[in-house]
Amino acid sequence: MSYRIGLDLGGTKVLGVVTDSSFNVIYRKKHRLSNRADILAVMDQISDVYKELAVNIKDSKIISVGIALPSPVDNQLGEAKQLTAFKENNFPVRAMLRERTEIEFKLGNDVNMATLAEYNFGAGKGASSLFTLYPGTGLGGGYIYNGTLITGYNSTAAEVGHMIIDIDGPLCKCGRHGCLEAIVSYHGFKTFLEEKINSGNSCVIDPSRFRAADIFDAWHNNDTIVSELLKYQARALGIGIANVINITGVERIIVGGTIYHELESDLMPIVKENADKYSIGNGLDGVKILLNDLGDEAPALGASMLD
Ligand SMILES: [Zn+2]
User: What is the CATH number of domain 126-291?
Assistant: First the structure.
């Protein structure tokens, strides 16, 4: 038997899986990162997770080891170009991990790896082309055309979060105004909420500390501000999807994010209505807009597929 290992480096954890020849996950390991400010310590911890997984595969062969990173990657140089969560640019991940494990890691961007997994085993099964949008802390995207993951000339393709939706819109973390991410993300929500409260509105949610569950409760209790914000985000997401359809003409759109799973029946109709309203011609005919199917393991599973 031959096996593959896929790892996923997040801002707070390393998650690893061992997959068999059919990409079934047969072992998994989740490690909460300590000493995150020291990138070398982070590399040590990734190596440890790899070793703990590899030890399970005794007499068989590991044919591939990949890692999903929260950064655009240069697979030729083996570098993470903007490892923002760890304040590193052009960081030599492959060399660092080779030093520690004597293994050549293949690198992938985490959202692209989740997209690859979703395409093969999740909500993307059966489609020839698709685009994913994952709203969360930010808003990541992935693009597969005719079975190929499109990363672009400079590895910046599918950065759907920084598509401009409103040129006079809110300031984005990237320094520009009106990006989709600045509206449809946790930070977008928080910023809007603060503005609303500062201009005299009241809301049950305290913008300085709230969890996803608080948003859902407020929605179900018909809080005016929260329902206005979530509907505004859903409209913006629909417009973003229409732009994606207008440019790529993909067959399927996959939307992630806790909010859209939890409030699917309330928010997805708004997303779809706006995607339909703003896409040109018959661009949306027969296109399915679905929620993602695979959970937290998707980036690690996708990383295990890297060849
Ligand atoms: Zn931006």
Answer: 3.30.420.40
Q: For the segment 227-239, what is each residue's pLDDT rounded down to a tens digit?
A: 999 999 999 999 9
Quick: pLDDT tens for 132-155. Answer: 999 998 899 999 999 999 998 888
- Ligand 1 geometric centre to CA of 247 (Å): 19
Q: How far is the CA of 231 from the centre of ligand 1 (A)?
A: 21
Q: What is the mean pLDDT of residues 177-191?
A: 94
Q: With respect to CATH, is domain 2-114+297-303 assigned 3.30.420.40? A: yes
Spell out the domain ranges in the chain: 2-114+297-303, 126-291
SS3 track for 241-281: HHHHHHHHCCCEEEECCHHHHHCHHHHHHHHHHHHHHHCCC
How far, in Å, is the centroid of ligand 1 from the Cα of 183? 10
Ligand 1 centroid distance, CA of 161 (Å)? 6
Domains 2-114+297-303 and 126-291 share a fold: yes
Instruction: Give distance in angstroms: CA of 151 to centre of ligand 1.
Output: 18
